[in-house]
Amino acid sequence: MNKPPTTAERVLELRTEMDARIQAQRHAPLPRWLAHRSTRRAIAAGPPLTVLACGLLTATRPDDAVGTALLGATAALALASLLLLRRASRLLDTAPDRLLDEREIGERNAAHRRAHALTIGLFALLMIVAVADALMTRSGGAALIPGDNWIQVMVTAMLVAGMIPAAVMAWRWTDLTDEDLG
Amino acid sequence: MHNRLAILRAERGVSRAELAGAVGVNPQTIGFIERGDYGPSLEVALRICDFFSLPVEAVFALTPLTPMSTQLYGTEPGDSR
To answer: Domain count of chain B?
Structure first.
């Protein structure tokens, strides 16, 4: 009678299955329209900026049902964009190191460095908005971000920050040849 | 970095995937190396040379490589005999 697998064997089995699934997704042929740098760059820049704009617009509105629906739509857009960006960069930002070769690890690390700088820039921008908001409120003017809407701003910032690494990878990728498209 | 990977692959009928599998990189990386978009590490370069059973200087160079026909027969492009 077969002995049941030990926990270590089961973990190894699951990891092998997951690696095979990730590799299958990474090596699946890319659609031709994703092969061109101009398209990938449009996908890399457009959705994060749109999500940021939608989130900030939502935060400046009164905290009502419409605002909540807008924030939900923004989150859905962010999620769909993230999936597309990961597809465009062949899951480079999520694949474990053991599945990447030296060039891909180098590309991913370079993209993460750039993404880190962009994320710092995003939060610096929000810090400026926060200071401006506080100054306007103290001087008796209307607040830029009313009520508890800073929560929406932070949710938006987190969504955009989550998209930045994949967006940078998609932005930096060179054009692919027919053979690369596999 | 310049290299003769594409011509060596064509000459020996080796696909990118086969070479990539033999040296432990992804097939796209072979394409990047062939186009000169990526300079491989010493380890990968040595594995590639080992695969083709050639010395490093026959496959990789810092300056443009002389065409193999010129090296073999001393002819330049456009020469007629």
So the answer is: 1
> How close A172 gets to chain B, by Cα (Å)?
13
Q: Could you tell me if residue A1 is inside a domain?
A: no
Residue closest to A154 by CA, chosen among A78, A52, A9? A52
Does A98 contact B at CB distance below 8 Å? no
Tell me if A101 and B37 make a contact (CB, 8 A cut-off): no
Q: How far is residue A119's CA from residue A116's CA, in Å, rounded to a whole number?
A: 5
Which domain does A147 fall in, by range? Answer: 49-93+100-176
Domain that holds residue B17: 2-73
Contact status of A97 with chain B (Cβ, < 8 Å): no
Smallest CA–CA separation between B27 and chain A, in Å?
A: 8
ipTM: 0.78
> Domain total for chain A?
1
Predicted confidence (pLDDT) per residue in A104-161, tens digit: 999 999 999 999 999 999 999 999 988 988 888 888 877 788 877 888 889 999 999 9
In a domain, A124, yes or no: yes
Contacts of A177 in chain B (CB under 8 A): 31, 35
DSSP H helices in B1-81: 5-12, 16-23, 27-35, 42-52, 56-59, 68-73
